[in-house]
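Bit of a strange request maybe. I'm writing a small parser for structure token strings and I need a real example to test against, not something I typed by hand. Could someone generate the tokens for this chain?
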Amino acid sequence: MKSDSNRARPTIREVAALSGTSIKTVSRVMNGVSTVDPALAKAVNQAARKLNYRPNLTAGNLRRVDGRTNTIGLLLKDISNPFSSALHRAFEDLARAEGFDVIAGSMDEMPERESELINTFISRRVDGLIIVPTTSDHKYLEKERKSGMQFVFIDRPANNFVADTVVATNKKGAQEATEHLIHHGHTRIAYMGDSQEIYTASERFAGYKAALTKAKIKIDQSIIHHGVKDLKALDAFTSSILTGSNRPTAIFSSQNFVTIEAIRALTKHNLSKKIALVGFDDLPFADLVNPGISLITQDIQKMAETASRLLFNRIKGETQKAELYEIPTIFTQRGSGEL
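Reply from user aminoacidic:
Good idea to test on real output. This should exercise your parser:
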């Protein structure tokens, strides 16, 4: 018996032929036009069911008067990262409520991947883009904006490109975390974070330094580490500071993956209950370990709601001046930061 697994998808022309109607009539039925003769609509629907025909929604949307496809593109650092995945889910729910679909991609801190994804999404006729930016220069987006594309940046601002932006209070949150450790008697506080080329990492390190400076504590470069890509280097750093003669009494880790490495190192050296730890970004297991992990977290739902509102308003035609919105972080004490 010959398999039909490679059979081409049924077309609107085949539906028209089977139903004895025209392509235009099939199109009107598929688009829900109420003035189509009921008998013709019934014949078209029966033919569509028999052929298992699915209309090309993108093509249909492109024929709309407003030209919209009711889709938005979401460009994230890494969808597997808990922060990115939480953002993704929040945007999906918010978009659905507006009648929009979301397509998303990961950029992995690669500028060329950012421009590649933006071009891909625009070619798919998305109505707007929400971007966690990676590129150091976004002037190239001016051409797309002049063509009607709408942009909102989240987590980090764009460079050389003015657009609505939603960020967390990164510096303030990091300063709060470090001051919390200082108030618990710590003066030798190690810092672990991502590359200083990344906006959020730079802001959080600035908050750490501001807290030390305010408390008149000298900044010691020997207990500071930037970068998360080289796990061997990160492991070597944690081992050196935890086994040295002048080890820190506390650690501020300014990114979720870095916090995981800090927890791993403290556990390895049996110091989880001796060296305090405050992290930045949420961890799903933060309250399941002993001691629980004290964390500064971003209000992801509020950030997503703000960014979505801005983008959908732009898509609907609002032309107000671009603004920067800072969403306050949340500090949750669970034990590790209170040693």
